[in-house]
Design a protein that fits this description.
This protein is an alpha+beta fold and about 170 residues long. The protein is about 35% helix and about 15% strand. The chain is built from seven helices and four strands, in the order ααβααβαβαβα. It has helices at about 5-10, 25-35, 55-60, 65-70, 95-110, 125-130, 160-165, and strands at about 45-50, 75-80, 115-120, 140-145. It has a four-stranded antiparallel beta sheet, sandwiched between helices. Helix 2 (about 25-35) packs antiparallel against helix 5 and helix 3 runs antiparallel to helix 6 (about 125-130). The longest helix has 18 residues, at about 95-110. It is globular. The N and C termini lie far apart (about 35 Å). The chain binds flavin mononucleotide.
Length: about 170
């Protein structure tokens, strides 16, 4: 698929087939994440890959949605602030880094026939407990992965004219 078609084809998949993901396919999606650019090339993140089989109860504490706990794989992307690049005025770019990493992952997954959905509205306390996240690390985003059982809907986006301007604000 060419790149624009891939972008149009990707959507938030919220229903998954029970089929497991071939480890080689999963590895390719993870490799795309690994190759993502990060500020000053610090790579201040860790991806926790969770095979959901048998872990539904714990996952339900994290984000109680059937499609979340039934996707064959979910990935928790964690930021490691002390390893990230910080601008002179104190602004940390760890969140930006992780967004790029996970976007690489999600687009690579789409190319491999996998569906994904970003999940931010999880229970942070439950995540820290279940996944044993160290204090200095921040669980930032989850992503489900699996073969879609639903279909793409209408892509609702603002027109470009509302989202950009030339030269000044
Ligand atoms: C940072 C981020 C966080 C999101 N968190 C959630 C979430 O917690 N639950 C959910 O169902 N969808 C979540 N989404 C999915 C968005 O709702 C979805 O991407 C958006 O509506 C556009 O639809 P599309 O992905 O199908 O193009 C999130 C997306 C992003 C980028």
């Amino acid at each position: 698929m060419d790149f624009m078609s891939l972008i149009k084809h990707r959507y938030s998949v919220r229903e998954y087939r029970p089929d497991s993901i071939d480890p080689m396919v999963l590895q390719q999606a993870l490799e795309a994440a690994r190759l993502a650019p990060t500020a000053a090339n610090r790579q201040p993140f860790r991806l926790i890959v969770i095979h959901t089989a048998g872990k539904q109860e714990e996952l339900n504490r994290i984000y109680a949605r059937d499609w979340f706990i039934n996707a064959p794989v979910v990935i928790c992307a964690c930021g490691i602030p002390e390893q990230g690049w910080v601008r002179a005025d104190g602004k940390s770019y760890v969140d930006v880094d992780i967004a790029i990493v996970m976007d690489h992952l999600s687009l690579a997954a789409a190319e491999l026939g996998l569906g994904t959905c970003w999940v931010a509205s999880f229970d942070v306390g439950a995540v820290r407990e279940v996944l044993k996240i160290p204090e200095k690390v921040e669980p930032l985003i989850f992503m489900t992965l699996g073969y879609p059982a639903d279909k793409i809907g209408e892509k609702e986006r603002k027109p470009l004219s509302e989202l950009m301007s030339y030269e000044i604000w």
